[in-house]
Amino acid sequence: MIVHAVQRIAPCRRVAAVMTAIAMTVVLASVRAADREEEMRGLWVRRASLISADAIRKMVSSAATAGFNTIFVQTSSDAGAGGASGFDATGETIRQAHVAGLRVHAWVDVLAAASPDELPSTRDHVVYRHPDWLMVPREIAADLLAVDTRNPTYVGRLARWTRANAERVESLYVSPVQPEAAAQVAERVRDLARRYAFDGIYLDHVQYPGDDFDFSRASVAVFRDVIRKELSPADRRRVDAEEAVDPFAYPNTFADRWRLFRRSQLTSLVARIYSTVKAVRPSALVSAAVTADPAAAERDRLQDWRTWLDNGFLDALCPVATGVDPAFLAAQVGQVRAVSGTRPVWAGVGANRLAQMETVDVIVAARRAGAGGVILFSYDSLISPARGPDYLSALGRGAFEGS
């Protein structure tokens, strides 16, 4: 881009322009290098730990004492929720954390809408207001065509199927294919960035649960409308005739384009979120949880994070590992590092499943593999009574002191 810009400048000004461009590049590189100098030492914090100012004070003090420098705070669609009526948990967390010298990133569940085991109690929730926005797996798509989306049976059947397939799907998901749903997701993130002085926005569940989603009637209709405009009259008549017998004739007939369409809609949402955040809070880092193997991410989750990187839609990536084996996590970090270029890679560690020394070993392995830091899941599990009162601080000493 710099070279092209210079070529359009008059010859007598080209040298000065080149020097200016080089100087700007050096400055930007220096700033980015400085940003990467400090290791990310992050801690995920659930909303349940933010129920009062005292609870937040305990959390901030514990994180700072243990050597963490960043907390990733779980947010909800109503960003201030978290305790008694009128208590702004998010604002209070940021205020106390910044006083203590900690950075705060918003932990946003982008597409995961609700746990199938405990559906929301408020009827204002998206699963009740817009059940037509929810992703549907191919396996039950035909059956759900006979159910009105406004009928409680619709969400109930989706929830039951999700519970029965908990080994691969942990939530009901909102579909990025539907324009209104994507717009609301982006607006929610914009509102968080506008209202609160977050140092970063972390995008979780920014993927499809599998490549067999989203076969909801609304999403298939969106794809159908796009494809029909590109077909000849004869081809439209042919596929429309097939659709009279097979409601999924369009995704079936144009399977490759259906996959590309769904993948591109997710990429468009990530791009929209990134530009939205930068417009209101330019210094905030936008990061995302990713499947470490980029080919598997694209194939199984329609998560094309290589394209996100190529187009500058992310500032950092976080491959998340829940296993015990340090070598496995190191391999995951290495896969992402091979593609990430100058962007930092933060290893997500499921410390809730590990013993103290196992967690330390995993952190050491992540560092050796080139990670720019780690994020541990989660504060709540690491201060549980079963761990003991000093567990988190001892873990911090073992992981961060002298490193």
What is this structure, in a nutshell?
This protein has 403 residues and is of the alpha/beta class. It contains 18 helices and 10 strands. The protein folds into 2 domains: 1-37, no CATH class; 40-136 and 148-209 and 265-400, Glycosidases (TIM Barrel, Alpha-Beta Barrel), CATH 3.20.20.
Topology of this structure?
Layout: H1 2-7, H2 11-37, E1 40-45, H3 53-65, E2 70-74, H4 89-99, E3 103-109, E4 112-114, H5 126-129, H6 138-144, H7 152-164, E5 172-173, H8 179-195, E6 200-204, H9 217-228, H10 233-243, H11 249-253, H12 255-280, E7 285-290, H13 294-301, H14 305-310, E8 316-321, H15 326-340, E9 346-349, H16 356-368, E10 373-376, H17 379-382, H18 391-400
Parallel strand pairs: 1-2, 1-10, 2-3, 3-6, 6-7, 7-8, 8-9, 9-10
Antiparallel strand pairs: 4-5
